[in-house]
C-alpha cells in the first residue's frame, strides 16, 4: 500500500463494544489494531479501551508535539497495576518535581562519558560469547542475546559482586515481562489493585525475587562504600548521587532506578540484536556490506568505544532494526486543561496514543516499510526521514535515558560477533509478542556460519 492509496475516513473511529470499547480487537493483536486504525480511519482516530477515551495520532509532527508537551499540558499515563509493581516510582513513572529530581540524579550515570567506560565490558562479554560458539552449531538467538546482555547489564549496573545472581534476576524479569503484557492486553488492566488473579500472584512472586536480589546487591555496595572501596558501576554512581539539597536516593528509589536501567540495558538491547540478526539473515546484501565495513575498519581486532563513530553501516543496521521492531511499541499521555495537538483541542482526561510500530511502518514516511533497508539512513539517502517519524526510544523531555547505552551496546556486540559469524535463520521468522517491550513470540533459531569461511572449531555438545 502506497502513501497515495491509504484509505481515510477522517473524524470516524472503529465500532465499539458496550463497556469494553475496542478492547477485544486491541487484546487480540494490538500491533495490527493500531495499523488498522491508521489505515482505515486516518491520522486522528478516536477509540476506547474499556471506559477510557482515547485518540491515536499518526503524523510525526503530532507525535513530536505530544512528546514535547509531556510534563506540560500532557502528563504520563499510569499503565496499570503490573507496570507499577515492576517499575515502582522510578524515573519512567514519576511526574512533576519528583520526576525532575530523579532524572537529574540518574542522567549523569548514563551520559556518553560514562557509557564510554562501560564499552570495554560490552566488548569483553561479547568476545567471550563468540569464543564459545562453533560453526555449524544451531542456537536460539534470542536466548543467546538475552544471556549476553544480561551479563553486560549485571556487570555494568551492579558490578562483579552480582555475578551468580543473573539467573534468578533473569527468570523473575521474564515472568514479570510476560504478566505485564498479559494484563495490559486484558480486562485485568481495569481491575482495582486489591483484586487477586493468578497472573497477579505470579507477578508479585517475581517482583519479590527482584526486590530480594537487588536489595542484597545494594547492601553489598553500601558496605563496600563505607569501607572506602571505589567502584565504576551504575549502582555505585546512583548511591553517590545527591540532589540539589544534598539528599541521596532512598533504598526504594535505588531499587526502582536499578530495575529501570536493567530493563533499558538488557531487555531492549537483547531484542534489538535478536531482530537484527534475523533481518540480516534475510538480506545478504546488507550482511555483505556489514562484513566489508567490519573488515575494513577493524581488521580483525576487537572494537572500542571510539569505533562506534567509525562504523556507520553497523549503526544503520541497528537503527533499521529498531524501526521495524521498536522495543517501545506504544507511547501514551493524558491531556490536561488547555491541551491541543496540531491546533486541535484535546478534551482534558483524553489519552493520546502514539504507536511507534505503526508509524515506523507507514509508507508515507518509509517507502516499502516492510523491507529491511539500512541504506534508508545513508547521509545522502533520497528520502530524508521526518524528525519524529523514528521514535524507538520516545522523545521530548521524557525520552529514554538509556538510549545511548543501548545503541552503543547493540552496535559493539554486532561488530564483535559479526566479524566471526553469520547467523543463518533460513526461512524461519519469529512472530512478535507485545509486553513491556516488543519481544519475539518464540525461539529465534539460527545456524552459525563462519564469517571467514573456515570452521573455527567443533560445536558444543
Question: Mind explaining what this structure looks like?
Answer:
Helix 8 (166-184) packs antiparallel against helix 9 and helix 11 (251-281) crosses helix 15 (403-418). This protein has one domain: Orthogonal Bundle (Cytochrome p450), CATH 1.10.630.10. A five-stranded mixed beta sheet has the order 1-2-8-5-3, sandwiched between helices. The chain is built from 15 helices and twelve strands. A hairpin with a 3-residue loop joins strand 10 (432-434) and strand 11 (438-440). The longest helix has 31 residues, at 251-281. Residues 1-10 and 456-461 have low confidence and may be disordered. With 461 residues, the chain is of the alpha+beta class.
Could you give me the name of the CATH homologous superfamily? Cytochrome P450
Strand arrangement, largest sheet?
1-2-8-5-3
Sheet/helix structural class: alpha+beta
β-strand amount: 5-15%
Contiguous uncertain segments of 5+ residues = 1-10, 456-461
Total discrete domains: 1
Give me the strand/helix succession: HHEEHEHHHEHHHHHHHEEEEHHEEEE
Q: What is the mean pLDDT?
A: 88
Cα shape: globular
Please give the alpha-carbon distance between the first and last residues.
Answer: 47 Å
CATH topology: Cytochrome p450
Count of alpha and pi helical runs: 15
CATH architecture: Orthogonal Bundle
Largest sheet entry: 5 strands, mixed
Radius of gyration: 22 Å
Number of strands: 12
CATH class: Mainly Alpha
Estimate the helix proportion, in percent. 40-55%
Amino acid at each position: 500500500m502506497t502513501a497515495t492509496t491509504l484509505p481515510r475516513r477522517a473524524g470516524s473511529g472503529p465500532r465499539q463494544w458496550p463497556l469494553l470499547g475496542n478492547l477485544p480487537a486491541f487484546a487480540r493483536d494490538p500491533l495490527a489494531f493500531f495499523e488498522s486504525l491508521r489505515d482505515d480511519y486516518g491520522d486522528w482516530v478516536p477509540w476506547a479501551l474499556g471506559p477510557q477515551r482515547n485518540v491515536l495520532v499518526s503524523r510525526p509532527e503530532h507525535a513530536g508535539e505530544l512528546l514535547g508537551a509531556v510534563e506540560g499540558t500532557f502528563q504520563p499515563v499510569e499503565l496499570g497495576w503490573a507496570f507499577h509493581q515492576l517499575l515502582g516510582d522510578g524515573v519512567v513513572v514519576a511526574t512533576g518535581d519528583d520526576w525532575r529530581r530523579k532524572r537529574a540524579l540518574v542522567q549523569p550515570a548514563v551520559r556518553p562519558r560514562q557509557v564510554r567506560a562501560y564499552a570495554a565490558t560490552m566488548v569483553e562479554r561479547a568476545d567471550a560469547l563468540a569464543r564459545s560458539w562453533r560453526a555449524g552449531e544451531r542456537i536460539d538467538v534470542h536466548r543467546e542475546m538475552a544471556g549476553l546482555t544480561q551479563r553486560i547489564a549485571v556487570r555494568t549496573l551492579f558490578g562483579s559482586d552480582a555475578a551468580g545472581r543473573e539467573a534468578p534476576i533473569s527468570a523473575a524479569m521474564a515472568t514479570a515481562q510476560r504478566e505485564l503484557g498479559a494484563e495490559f492486553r486484558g480486562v485485568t488492566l481495569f481491575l482495582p489493585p486489591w483484586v487477586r488473579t493468578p497472573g497477579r500472584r505470579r507477578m508479585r512472586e517475581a517482583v519479590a525475587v527482584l526486590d530480594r536480589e537487588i536489595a542484597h546487591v545494594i547492601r553489598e555496595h553500601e558496605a563496600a562504600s563505607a569501607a572506602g572501596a571505589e567502584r565504576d558501576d551504575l549502582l555505585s554512581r546512583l548511591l553517590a548521587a545527591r540532589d540539589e539539597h544534598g539528599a541521596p536516593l532512598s533504598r526504594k528509589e535505588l531499587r526502582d532506578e536499578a530495575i529501570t536501567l536493567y530493563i533499558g540495558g538488557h531487555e531492549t538491547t537483547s531484542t534489538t540484536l535478536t531482530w537484527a540478526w534475523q533481518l540480516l539473515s534475510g538480506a545478504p546484501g546488507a550482511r555483505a556490506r556489514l562484513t566489508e565495513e567490519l573488515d575494513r575498519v577493524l581488521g580483525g581486532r576487537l572494537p572500542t568505544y571510539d569505533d562506534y563513530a567509525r562504523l556507520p553501516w553497523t549503526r544503520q543496521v541497528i537503527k533499521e532494526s529498531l524501526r521495524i521492531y521498536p522495543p517501545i511499541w506504544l507511547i501514551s499521555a493524558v491531556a490536561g486543561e488547555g491541551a491541543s495537538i496540531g491546533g486541535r483541542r484535546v478534551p482534558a482526561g483524553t489519552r493520546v496514543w502514539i504507536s511507534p510500530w505503526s508509524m515506523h511502518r507507514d509508507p508515507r514516511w518509509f517507502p516499502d516499510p516492510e523491507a529491511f533497508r539500512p541504506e534508508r539512513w545513508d547521509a545522502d539517502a533520497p528520502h530524508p526521514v521526518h524528525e519524529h517519524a523514528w521514535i524507538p526510544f520516545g522523545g521530548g523531555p521524557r525520552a529514554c535515558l538509556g538510549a545511548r547505552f543501548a545503541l552503543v551496546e547493540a552496535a559493539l556486540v554486532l561488530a564483535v560477533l559479526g566479524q566471526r559469524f553469520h547467523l543463518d535463520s533460513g526461512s524461519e521468522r519469529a512472530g512478535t509478542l507485545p509486553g513491556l517491550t516488543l519481544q519475539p513470540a518464540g525461539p529465534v533459531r539460527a545456524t552459525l556460519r563462519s564469517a571467514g569461511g573456515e570452521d573455527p572449531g567443533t560445536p558444543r555438545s
